[in-house]
Specification:
Layout: H1 2-11, H2 16-42, E1 47-49, H3 58-75, E2 79-86, H4 91-100, E3 105-115, E4 129-139, E5 146-151
Parallel strand pairs: 1-2
Antiparallel strand pairs: 2-3, 3-4, 4-5
Length: 153
């Protein structure tokens, strides 16, 4: 890039105004290309793996997934969500979590995601893939799901 700019400088010696116009156009082109690349990165669709349940309907599972997707995009800067899915029926575990977090019902979701360099700011390892990361949600009276805990373990 430096060589290219030096070349342009040699061509435009003595014509300061033309040089300024060329560099402004060049910077605008570079900025547009960077913007397009960034927008393209953000539009990746999250894969939602379908796992059927005898406890929850597809709509109930989707409502829980939507809560985590929204929270992830808002609070998990430096991370790219790749996949999210229902962890499967485990009535004893769900009852235990519901009791522990003062809810009537609990559900567990799992995610796969990638972190970038800045993920250390939210307590995660930078440039790593996390798989089967667990999210615990509860609700009362068939209300809205609320994220209460998560992680490994």
């Amino acid at each position: 890039m430096k060589i290219f700019l030096g070349f342009l400088l040699e061509i435009n010696k003595g014509s300061g105004r033309k040089w300024i116009m060329v560099t402004k156009k060049l910077y605008k082109i570079i900025l547009c290309l960077l913007l397009i690349m960034c927008v393209g990165c953000q539009r990746k669709e999250v894969k939602v793996r379908t796992i059927y349940s005898d406890i929850y309907t597809e709509e109930e599972i989707q409502e829980a997934i939507d809560v985590i997707k929204k929270e992830f995009s808002k609070d998990w800067k430096g991370c790219t969500l790749k996949e999210i899915y229902y962890a499967g029926d485990d009535k004893a575990l769900f009852t235990s979590y519901a009791k522990q977090y003062q809810g009537e019902e609990a559900i567990v979701l799992k995610t796969n995601f990638h972190t970038n360099y800045f993920a250390w700011k939210i307590g995660l390892n930078s440039n790593c893939d996390y798989e089967d990361y667990q999210w615990i949600l509860i609700r009362n009276n068939n209300g809205k799901w609320k994220h209460v805990d998560g992680g490994y373990g």
